[in-house]
Amino acid sequence: MPQRYYEDLAIGEIAESSERAVALEEMLEFARRYDPQYFHADPEAAKASIFGEVIASGIHTAALWRQLDASISGDIAWVCGVAWEDVRWPEAVRAGDRLRARFELLAKRPSRSHPDRGVVEVRYTLLNQRDAVVFTCRSINLVATRPVTAD
After folding, report:
1. CB contact at 8 A, 125 and 99
2. Hey, is 45 helix, strand or coil?
3. Given 3.40.50.2000, 3.10.129.10, 3.40.50.720, 2.40.50.100, which CATH number is that of 6-144?
4. Taking the CB of residue 4, how many other CB atoms lie within 10 A of it?
5. 3 state SS of 20
6. Could you tell me if 46 and 38 are in contact, meaning their C-beta atoms sit under 8 angstroms apart?
7. Residue 6, class by beta-carbon neighbours within 10 Å (0-12 exposed, 13-18 middle, 19+ buried)?
C-alpha cells in the first residue's frame, strides 16, 4: 500500500538508491533477447566497435534505472507515467559498473480534469561509480491525491 500521496511530495525533494553492479552475462542476456546489436550482444565483434567492448543496451540501462528507482520511489501512490522528455544516455554502461538511481522532484500541480490526482515532473538520473551520468530524463507522472475519508 502506498504511503505517500501527491500532497506529501515536495518540490526539490531528492532521493538516491543504493548501488547495483552490472554483470557482463546479464548485459549479454538482455541484448541477445531484446537489442541484438553486435556491440551489445557479441563480445568478439564489440571489440571492433567504437566502444572496444560490450556495452549495455540503452533499453537495458533504462530498465536498470527503473529497478533501482523502485527502491526510492516505490512508496509513492503512482497512477502512471505519461511522458519522458530529454531522454539521454551520455555515457555507456560497461560490465562491472556500479549504478545508483537519483530522483529529483522538479514541479507539481493539481490535475485540471481529475481531482483524484496530481501531475508531477521528476528528473531521473542513473549514475555510475565515478558519478558519471549514464541515463537521464525528465518524466511527467500522475500521482494519486490522498483519499477523502468520511468523518
Report:
1. no
2. helix
3. 3.10.129.10
4. 17
5. strand
6. yes
7. buried
For residue 114, CA distances in Å to 36, 125, 143, 145, 147 come to 42, 29, 11, 10, 13
Cell numbers for 44, please give them: 568478439
Beta bridge partners of 99: 20
- In the chain, domain spans: 6-144
Which tens digit of pLDDT belongs to each residue from 7-16?
999 999 999 9
* 56 DSSP assignment: -
Each residue's pLDDT tens digit, 42-79? 999 999 999 999 999 999 999 999 999 999 999 999 99
